[in-house]
Predict the structure.
Amino acid sequence: MLKQIEMMTAPRIDFYVLSDAKENSRALLACRLADKAYRLGHIVYIVTSSEVRAAALDDLLWTFRQDSFVPHERYPLISAEGSPVLIGVASPAEVNAQVLVNFTDVLPDGFERYERVVELVDMHPDVRAKSRERFKQYRERGFTPETYKL
């Protein structure tokens, strides 16, 4: 019985693999996925590796598509309520959301508490190598990541 409960609460882990290595491809994909999750009623946390990357994503979420509006803000929150899409460099273990978009090169601390973890991969050799390592780390921890080629 305990095994079934653990399996039901394990996050779904998806690797989205882009067919190019354009500089902004992963950032645009992060925006599209955050938009989709927001429209499905989920709270999303996009964890980044730096304040510079977080600021760039913050700007891109306003402009990535002409007809979109994705309410978002930087984490830690300034307002009391918070937006459905958060962007930050803080450990994901600190953020209350259902979907984690990992825009770093490492396995995020606390990823297990999310319903879904999204990994962004492009064809850049360094990005691919680090994503393969994370894929392996998820499997070593008993998770079964899925891969989607875009």
Remarks:
- Residues 125-140 form the longest helix (16 residues).
